[in-house]
Amino acid sequence: MEVKCRRLEGKVAVVTASTQGIGLAIAERLGLEGAAVVISSRKQKNVDEAVERLKAKGITAVGAVCHVSDAQQRKSLIDTAVKNFGHIDILVSNAAANPTVDGILEMKESVLDKLWDINVKASVLLLQDAAPHLRKGSSVIIISSVAGYNPDQGLTMYGVTKTALFGLTKRKELTDKTVLKRLGSVEDMAAAAAFLASDDASFITAETIVVAGGMQSRFKPHPMAPPLPALVLLLAVTVPFSAAAPMVFPDEALPTKSGYLTIPHANASLFFAFYEATQPLTAPDSTPLLLWLQGGPGCSGLLGNFFELGPYFVNPDAETLSPNPFAWNRRFGLLFLDSPLGTGFSAAPSPADIPTNQSVVAEHILAALQSFFAVQPREFRARPLFLTGESYAGKYIPAAGAHILDVNPALPEALRVNLRGVAIGNGLTHPVAQVATHADAAYFSGLINARQKRELEALQAEAVSLTRAERWLGASDARGRVLSRLENMTGLATLYDAAKQLPYQTGPVGAFLNRAEAKAALGARAEVAWEECSDAVGAAMHADVMKSVVPQVESLLRRTRVLLYQGVRDLRDGVVSTEAWLGEVEWDGLPAFLDAERAVWRTRGDGELAGYVQRSGALSHVVVFGAGHLVPADNGRAAQEMIEEWVLQAGPFRRGGDGLRSAA
Predict the structure, then answer these.
(1) Is 40 an active-site residue?
(2) Tell me: domain 12-201, CATH 3.40.30.10, correct?
């Protein structure tokens, strides 16, 4: 968002925990509006990097190392501000910690001490240190959390500490320094109204904003509170999108819920959009949930939402939506996530915060799921969950799925995730085996000749050799050369679908999602420019491209159900490449699977050829006819029937055991 005003010229701001995430964003905004800022972090390296970032934007900034529970470091932070600028006008207490998800009865005393020391005591002590240097009219801002209103499972004591901060801001000995002790004016209310109407208030809605000079102004007032003077209370329910928004987003196309899911240990958040099932076959508390992850690395889950399997598609005019008759939320709740951090609307606090490996991606996905469940009714968590996605999500899904099953036993029962299976479409999962298949796939499809096949095999061998040597960046580059040469040899519009004369036409999705009214309707941050695929995430994960997640797939096969599916026309991550790595899986059920019949699969009703199904034990493999890399976009009917019948264990996936039964 472009900052056009300089209303803080001449002021000095001190912000704690401000080298990334919310704290850094606050410091940057205050600085862009003219304030000199003093930032802090526990690590000198982080302080130095953040100061340089702020200075590069023309902001006057200094920094200090400060762990807010350390009295000497708090004093040093205040001294840094006074030494450099002589006074303080704005104090922002942002630091917080949540070191555990234990319940109250299991929480150790040392953890309780840490929560109160950092989340509550530090704000009071910091204010004590700063008070002698606060000028008349100064502002003290304490960052709390919605958990303070409703402490959910896993955030119970964290939420209690945040509730304490609400009370702290009401204490007379604090507010006496800032209450204006005058009647409110019409200009005071006009300023608040202008703020609510501005882009700065784009994430505020359905709230009561009180302009009362710090005086008691809520229901059930304190019996000793003085009567309110006239013209001091402004009640506002803001609708932060234009009048055109309902036409762009008809009510039926809006997500059931959308916005941001916090990743507490990363001081960041991932964007999500959730659509409840429209025609479920099961009771509400047992209706399955699907989490969809896009590939890339760095491609937004909203591409899957608005181009492949969500309830509405963006039309070619990039301005309107049309219903998708084959949406995956017909029978199931459907959750789209912009992951990893830095993808889509999930802006990273800095490039350094973008994950570089699957372990961190998996941790973030689980944290996002915990945040999602925390704001749902208690019974929501018991619903069966299936991780789904395509392409580079062939890595995210096994990594996240195995991580969830690994940590579940150590979690309190109320925080466990009911993972019941994973589904991977056209996945890049074991690249060293997959990169060696492109020459054969193209040659036996008649797309290249024998000489071209030998040339491609030489490039493939280089990629394999570099991978075996764990020279990850070079191996990733070598794979890129294989695919580039193959596309050049074949003259195809895209390797993702050998039958297409043009690449997938996804451009309108980006144009639509970058409209202000679309962002507002979805609850996305107005200042974030949506990209279909993030170059920054691609660069951060470049060394991850050729690494395998087969061990995680093997772990999943021993504990839950796995579906692998590919569009038959995909030359990048298609059927041949999947067959190649499946043969290397170490799993007791593999011999039986390889000997299983590959059955012809037809759609219900009209009996059209949908593809082929092979299954045994926990593993199902589906080849989808009439589709390339983006299976739901190419053959929506088959994709919908496949996911519904696999999850519900119906049709070609029917079996005994403890799975869900379908009434379909």
Answers:
(1) no
(2) no
